[in-house]
Design the sequence.
């Protein structure tokens, strides 16, 4: 019975370690010029990051160890991994200066996490103080994933803005203010990216798949929106 209890309480930490491993793999893929895979791994890390806290609450397995582990994983997956990804895709042309600039991202992100960990909890839950490192890393991953359609100057400006927004005192609305719940938002983003990858990889051979997948995806978005709106009205 005791062993079973320990296993159950360790499940959220397994998801957190999975998040950390995604960050490590993302760095490896970026170093091997597989930038799309690197970006997708960061997005998968976002899904795992959203699930570990939810599981911890469901299983009543909250612990100081889990909180510290979550912060360490976030620094790697949403700080270090995106900075390497941006360096290899945009800043490499500036040499050591580009590497130094890319290194600012995990520095600001780590400071933001440390400040969050020692701050009193936000009772309203309606806003964050500064952009969370998870959101910042996810935004950089999406910009890289769709880099062929986005000018490099736009990515550079957004990268610089996110660095300062993470350590700012600005009140950033949380996902709770959006009709989609946090978990549903991340799943929706992931499915959208997956749809894009399927389109890129199968359009030549199976062009009809995209005409089936897009209506299904739009239907899913509509379902999530209506469900979230109804839930908000009930509350």
Sequence:
């Amino acid at each position: 019975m005791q062993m079973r209890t320990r296993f159950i309480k360790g499940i959220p930490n397994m998801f957190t370690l999975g998040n950390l491993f995604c960050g490590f793999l993302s760095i490896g893929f970026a170093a091997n010029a597989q930038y799309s895979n690197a970006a997708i791994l960061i997005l998968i890390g976002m899904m795992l990051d959203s699930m570990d806290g939810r599981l911890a609450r469901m299983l009543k397995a909250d612990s100081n160890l889990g909180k510290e582990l979550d912060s360490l994983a976030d620094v790697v997956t949403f700080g270090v991994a995106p900075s390497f990804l941006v360096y290899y895709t945009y800043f490499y042309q500036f040499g050591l200066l580009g590497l130094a600039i890319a290194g600012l991202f995990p520095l600001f992100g780590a400071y933001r996490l440390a400040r969050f960990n020692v701050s009193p909890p936000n009772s309203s839950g309606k806003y964050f103080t500064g952009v969370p490192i998870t959101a910042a890393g996810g935004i950089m991953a999406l910009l890289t994933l769709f880099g062929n359609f986005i000018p490099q100057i736009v990515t550079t400006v957004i990268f610089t803005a996110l660095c300062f927004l993470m350590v700012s005192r600005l009140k950033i609305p949380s996902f709770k203010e959006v009709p989609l719940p946090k978990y549903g938002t991340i799943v929706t983003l992931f499915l959208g990216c997956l749809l894009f990858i399927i389109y890129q990889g199968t359009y030549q051979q199976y062009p009809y798949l995209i005409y089936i997948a897009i209506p299904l995806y739009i239907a899913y978005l509509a379902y999530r929106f209506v469900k979230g709106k109804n839930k908000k009205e009930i509350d």
About this structure: The first helix runs from residue 2 to 31. The chain has nine helices and two strands. Residues 176-183 have pLDDT under 50 and may be disordered.
